[in-house]
Amino acid sequence: MSSRLLRLVVLYGGVSAEHDVSRVTAAHVLAAADRTKYDLVPIGIAKDGTWLRNDKAIAAITDGTPLPDALEVDGTAVEPLTELRGHADEAITVVLPLLHGPHGEDGTIQGMLELFKLPYVGAGVLSSAVCMDKALAKIVAAQEGIPQCRWVEFRDGVDDPTSITTRAIDELGLPVFVKPANLGSSVGITKAHDEPELDAAINLALRYDNVVIIEEAVTGREIEVAVLGDTAPETSVPGEIKPGSEFYDYEDKYVTGAAELVIPAQVSDAATAEVRELAARTFTAMRCTGMARVDFFYEEPGRGWLLNEVNTIPGFTPGSMYPKLWEASGVAYPDLIDQLVTFALEVHRRRVGFSTEH
């Protein structure tokens, strides 16, 4: 490929329980990206942390042959700094991290890329870390006056494990949802209907993180809004998820596909305007850049819109809510990738332009 093309390095896989989800996301992004604009370089990160340039996928992209539904994490072992910065004389490099969960969506990769002085798509170090940690995100949302459901935090080694179930039930009632604070894709999430189930759910969540979030079960619709931009973010039409099981779990998202996505969500014009404004407020409060999917519960009648969570690296397959919301709002999948790359370059120019002198 011509060296004049912008070099777009797609990172996928990663050291988290969401490794396989990332492999699917990366395959679809590579298939959709405009090959007349980008020199596409997929790099998989194995669960042991090894970086592997996927030469088979690069050959398929060059030949125009179809990619698999999920990229393998296989190929030539590379050293991150050399691979990412070694082509600076040939082309501009932008990194697109598609690493869901810890060690990818939590600010770690973002910090490394900033140390390498490379532009990258998506939220920065602080925003990524805060949005990944559901407890800290709730604290920020509360400070900003953004409505959300009631919740209790349990920190292993800090809080009393003998009283947490009683305290959670007293404060939140039953049933409740139990989540690892720093994970996504519904991994490790349980709906607990009684105290024994709650105890088991906490122990399951502690397999993935030392901080656990226990939330009240909200009787409401699940509505999501896609956000795109930087200092003046744009919002998509809202979409509704109708789970195929008791709640929108991992199987529903990635295995059975039983959930129904309704786009646009059937809510009033006033409610649509309100949730889009709340999504933009949340995006700004969390200091997001590039992209985020902001998830809400809609409790009607009742408290109205309640923030659920913010995903700074949302699912990006053609069937995922984020690109589908933008498609319904007039932004096609390849154009969405182009806009994200543009924002990455703009944010990078601003970031490296700050003075380091005193």
TrEMBL record:
| Stretches assigned to the ATP-grasp domain | 138-342
Which Pfam families does its entry note? Answer: Dala_Dala_lig_C, Dala_Dala_lig_N
Q: Identify the InterPro entries for this entry.
A: ATP-grasp, ATP_grasp_subdomain_1, D-Ala_lig_Van_CS, D_ala_D_ala, Dala_Dala_lig_C, Dala_Dala_lig_N, PreATP-grasp_dom_sf
Q: Tell me the GO molecular function terms.
A: ATP binding; D-alanine-D-alanine ligase activity; metal ion binding
User: Which prosthetic group or cofactor does it need?
Assistant: Mg(2+); Mn(2+)
The active-site annotation reads E18, S185, S320
Q: Which reaction does it catalyse?
A: 2 D-alanine + ATP = D-alanyl-D-alanine + ADP + phosphate + H(+)
Q: Which residues bind ATP?
A: 134, 177-179, 185-186, 215-222, 308-309
Q: Which UniProt keywords apply?
A: ATP-binding, Cell shape, Cell wall biogenesis/degradation, Cytoplasm, Ligase, Magnesium, Manganese, Metal-binding, Nucleotide-binding, Peptidoglycan synthesis
| Primary location recorded for the protein, binned into one broad class | cytoplasm
What EC number is given for this enzyme? Answer: 6.3.2.4
For whether the record's keyword set contains Amino-acid biosynthesis, the answer is no
Q: Pathway of this protein? A: Glycan biosynthesis; Cell wall biogenesis; peptidoglycan biosynthesis
Determine if Magnesium is one of this entry's keywords: yes
| Sequence positions that bind Mg(2+) 2 | E309, N311
- Record family assignment: Belongs to the D-alanine--D-alanine ligase family.
Instruction: Sum up the protein's function in the record's words.
Output: Cell wall formation.
Return the protein name.
Answer: D-alanine--D-alanine ligase
Top-level taxonomy: Bacteria, Bacillati, Actinomycetota, Actinomycetes, Mycobacteriales
